[in-house]
Every structure is written in structure tokens, then in C-alpha cells.
């Protein structure tokens, strides 16, 4: 169609609010002038700058403030002419994606937006948190959506490329995004069966290739690898008894939906396990949504937080804890180099940290500084608890640790070598327990978990036997 700026096209914004793998859909009320009774995202006419208008619509139509949502991305506008309900009306839809309630940290948060009553504006009379693939099911079903809703969602949905390029989020968060990629593609293939017929073998091949691309996007992330492996292994498990469905799109769709619920529950349950052991004074570092949740579930009397250079994400963690009414205790920030001093001089009862990866021998790979803190804690007789779902256990014998930007350490003109490791390895003998969704494990019990996870790799013969570089938290 012609340039929308040179026509009478109506520009609208549509925001998809995401929480725990689901998105918010709202039903348009009789108060609106278009698409009454249809379901869509948070939307409204863009009378000025769409980037500003979308936040206005979120506030007005849900009651959520700017601090309640985190911007993820915007997408290319969707342009179309509605020859059905709006009799040839031109539309330009500007899509946006936001995360809610700490989902930008880890992918899990016990304070669920699905349990919070949203304050709907007059333009909507009902809402639901649903998998985005629900938007594909509107034809002839009980959920009619506004036109091009799925097309708008696809413009902001996670992709293999966005997962590969992400240098802000941790492995658990990215593993949830990887399952969303599989879910969305499987849902689309299921939807296309009505037009093209079912071909389980081709569907299985396409989704298996997508799974391999996801693994290649972040080869070092054990939790992403394990969760993709579990999903495709579960989808394949029906192949013998139900050859028409096993491994095909419906099986993968069901497996990803179950995998998302399992992944999010595992992080919550690991936090609950750790929370049972948290009281008194705690020291932590880096950014982990699961650790934050463990502190909320425990009973700390004081929390020390290392600033966690070079990104200093510990500062954000400390500020979040200081304003969290469920933690309700003094929070102190200190430099990374002062961690051993704090452990020696303060009456710290426990060190609590997250993990990017847990090796089969019980050693833990985490943000640089974790090893020094654990060794200092061991010297002072302070127990160290690692909080992580068992999906973070690596099935590989070795991992390669990547380095950060040289300029973060030294950006001068001197002829200097620079060492800036992003991760370090904490020996198993410096760790007292690993709090998981299945309870507390000692480091020497991790090898059995790794063996179970290796069995999930059967869907992809010839799987690589070594990890790639670990990506930053």
C-alpha cells in the first residue's frame, strides 16, 4: 500500500504485556468505535509520538504505572486495509512488548500479575493472560481478535536472533524466551494445518532444526540447552504409540506449554527451598531473580550486596531490595574488593548466590567475584548457599569462560595486557548446599542430576560434547 504518512491511514499503538510466558489480551467494550467485542493488546490511537502514546495507553487501560513495566522492544509497523468490518479503512499498527513484575530479571516472580486485579479503562471490559498462540485460534472459536493481532505480536516476539544478541539478561530468562520461540512456531504450524493439512514428519524436522538453532545461539547456557532438550524429547516420546502426533507441531506445542510452566515453577521452588534457610545477616552479589525471591521468602535481618562490577548490577539489586516491603531490613552496598573484609568484620550468617551453570562435579560457574566470596566465606566459617533450578546443571565436562570488554578495566594508551573474566568457577568444597526445586543438594549429588539431563539429548543424535563460551549475566 502507499506510504501511510501520505494517506488517511489511522496510526494505532498495540502493547503486548508479557508475564510468565503469557501475554495480556483485553476485550474491547461497547464504548469504543471500532472492533467492539474483539480481543487485542493494550491499544489506542497514536495522535503523536507512538513511543510516548503507548505508555499512556498502558497506564490508562490497565492501571499499571511506568515502574510496573519494563520496555523490551518495538517492532516494524503492520500496515493493512480492513475490507471487512471497517469497509476499506487503512490501519498502521505500531507494536510494542513490555515485561511485568520483575520478568526482566529472571523470568519468574512470585508476585504474579495474573493474581493482581488490573484497573481497566472504559475501552475494555474483560482481560485474560494467555499464550500468544491463542491469537491464532480466533476463527470460529470463542475468542475473536482484532485483525492482524498475530502479525503485530510476531514483530516483537522473541527470536533466535534476539536471544543470541541479548547481553543484558541471565541464562534462566533467556531459556524461557527460547521455549517461547518454540511454542510460537509450533502454534503457527498447528494453525496452518487447516489450510495445508498435517505433515508431522516435516513439522518435526522444522521444529528440530529450530531447536538446534536455539542451542547454537547460546551454546554455553546449560539451562537453555536442558530446557530445549526436555521439550523436544517430551514431544518425541509419543512417536512410537502415536506416530501421527509424536514430534509434530501439536506435540511440540503441548510440550513447550508444559515446559514453560515447569521452568517458571522450578525457579520459584528453588527460591522457596533457599528461603527456608535464610535468616539473620546475608551477603550476596550479582543479579539473580531467584536469589531475590529467596530473600523475599526468607527472614533476613540485614543484607550486604557487592556492587558487582563492571556493570554494577548489584546496585540495582540493592535498590530493589531496599524498596521491597517483603524484605523489610537494612540493605548495605559495598565494593567487590571489600567482600572478604565484610565477611571478616560483620556477623554474616550466610552467603547466598545464584548460578549461571553448575558443573557435574558440583563446582559453580557464576559472575566473577563469586569464587572470592565463597573462599572468604569458607575461611570465616560462613555457609554458602547456591540457589538454582536443576536445569542449570551442565551435562558437559568443561566450560569455556568468556572475557568482558577490555576497556571496562583499562582504556588508556599504555602497553598493558588486560584480564577481565566475566565468570569464575567456585570449587565444590566451598559450597555447602545447592537449593533446587527438589530440595537442597550437596555438591557431590549433582552428578546424578547431570546423568538424567543427558538422557534428554536423545532427540538430536551427534550432539556436541563441549560447551561454548559462557555469555554474560
- Rg value: 24 Å
Topology-level CATH name of the domain at 269-396 and 420-462: Rossmann fold
The second-level CATH architecture of the domain at 269-396 and 420-462 is 3-Layer(aba) Sandwich
The portion of residues forming beta strands comes to 15-25%
Specify the overall morphology.
Answer: globular
Keywords: Initiation factor, Protein biosynthesis
GO molecular function: S-methyl-5-thioribose-1-phosphate isomerase activity; translation initiation factor activity
Domain Nudix hydrolase: 8-158
GO biological process, one term: L-methionine salvage from methylthioadenosine
What does this structure look like?
This protein is α/β, with parallel strands linked by helices. Among the domains are: 8-157, Nucleoside Triphosphate Pyrophosphohydrolase (Alpha-Beta Complex), CATH 3.90.79.10; 269-396 and 420-462, 3-Layer(aba) Sandwich (Rossmann fold), CATH 3.40.50.10470. It is built from 12 helices and 20 strands. The chain has helices at residues 50-62, 149-154, 160-165, 171-196, 200-217, 222-236, 249-275, 289-297, 313-322, 339-345, 370-380, 446-454, and strands at 10-19, 22-28, 39-40, 42-45, 69-74, 78-82, 89-100, 124-130, 279-284, 299-306, 331-334, 350-353, 357-358, 364-367, 384-387, 400-401, 423-426, 433-436, 439-441, 469-470. The strands form 4 sheets. Strands 1, 2, 3, 4, 5, 6, 7 and 8 form an 8-stranded mixed β-sheet that branches. Strand 13 (357-358) and strand 14 (364-367) form a beta hairpin. Helix 5 runs antiparallel to helix 6 (222-236). It is globular. Residues 1-6, 106-114, 239-244 and 464-473 have low confidence and may be disordered.
Amino acid at each position: 500500500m502507499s506510504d501511510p504518512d501520505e494517506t488517511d491511514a489511522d496510526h494505532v499503538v498495540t502493547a503486548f504485556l508479557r508475564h510468565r510466558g503469557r501475554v495480556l489480551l483485553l476485550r474491547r467494550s461497547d464504548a469504543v468505535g471500532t472492533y467492539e467485542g474483539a480481543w487485542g493488546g493494550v491499544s489506542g490511537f497514536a495522535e503523536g509520538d507512538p513511543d510516548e502514546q503507548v505508555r499512556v495507553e498502558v497506564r490508562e487501560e490497565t492501571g499499571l504505572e511506568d515502574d510496573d513495566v519494563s520496555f523490551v522492544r518495538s517492532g516494524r509497523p503492520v500496515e493493512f486495509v480492513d475490507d471487512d468490518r471497517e469497509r476499506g479503512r487503512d490501519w498502521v499498527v505500531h507494536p510494542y512488548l513490555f515485561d511485568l513484575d520483575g520478568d526482566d530479571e529472571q523470568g519468574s516472580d512470585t508476585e504474579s500479575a495474573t493474581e493482581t486485579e488490573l484497573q481497566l479503562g472504559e475501552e475494555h471490559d474483560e482481560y485474560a493472560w494467555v499464550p500468544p498462540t491463542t491469537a491464532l485460534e480466533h476463527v470460529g472459536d470463542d475468542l475473536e481478535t482484532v485483525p492482524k493481532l498475530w502479525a503485530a505480536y510476531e514483530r516483537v516476539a522473541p527470536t533466535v536472533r534476539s536471544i543470541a544478541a541479548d547481553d543484558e539478561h541471565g541464562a534462566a530468562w533467556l531459556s524461557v524466551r527460547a521455549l517461547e520461540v518454540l511454542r510460537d512456531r509450533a502454534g503457527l504450524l498447528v494453525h496452518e494445518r487447516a489450510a495445508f493439512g498435517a505433515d508431522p514428519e516435516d513439522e518435526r524436522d522444522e521444529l528440530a532444526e529450530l531447536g538446534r538453532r536455539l542451542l547454537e545461539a547460546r551454546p554455553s547456557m546449560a539451562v537453555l540447552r536442558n530446557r530445549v532438550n526436555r521439550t523436544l524429547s517430551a514431544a518425541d516420546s509419543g512417536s512410537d504409540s502415536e506416530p501421527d502426533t509424536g514430534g509434530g507441531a501439536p506435540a511440540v506445542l503441548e510440550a513447550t506449554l508444559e515446559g514453560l510452566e515447569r521452568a517458571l515453577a522450578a525457579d520459584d521452588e528453588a527460591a522457596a527451598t533457599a528461603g527456608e534457610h535464610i535468616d539473620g545477616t546475608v551477603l550476596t552479589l550479582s543479579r539473580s531473580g531467584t536469589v531475590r525471591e529467596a530473600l523475599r521468602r526468607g527472614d533476613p535481618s540485614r543484607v550486604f550486596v557487592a556492587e558487582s562490577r563492571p556493570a554494577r548490577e548489584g546496585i540495582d539489586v540493592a535498590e530493589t531490595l531496599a524498596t521491597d516491603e517483603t524484605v523489610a531490613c537494612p540493605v548495605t552496598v559495598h565494593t567487590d574488593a571489600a567482600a572478604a573484609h565484610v565477611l571478616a568484620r560483620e556477623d554474616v550468617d550466610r552467603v547466598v548466590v545464584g548460578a549461571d551453570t553448575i558443573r557435574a562435579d558440583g563446582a559453580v560457574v557464576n559472575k566473577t567475584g563469586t569464587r572470592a566470596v565463597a573462599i572468604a566465606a569458607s575461611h570465616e566459617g560462613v555457609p554458602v548457599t547456591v540457589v538454582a533450578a536443576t536445569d542449570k546443571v551442565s551435562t558437559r565436562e568443561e566450560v569455556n569462560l568468556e572475557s568482558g570488554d577490555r576497556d571496562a578495566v583499562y582504556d588508556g594508551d599504555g602497553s598493558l595486557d588486560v584480564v577481565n573474566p566475566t565468570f569464575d568457577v567456585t570449587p565444590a568444597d566451598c559450597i555447602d548446599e545447592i537449593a533446587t526445586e527438589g530440595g537442597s543438594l550437596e555438591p557431590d549429588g549433582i552428578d546424578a542430576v547431570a546423568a538424567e539431563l543427558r538422557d534428554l539429548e536423545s532427540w538430536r543424535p551427534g550432539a556436541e560434547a563441549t560447551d561454548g563460551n559462557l555469555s554474560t549475566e
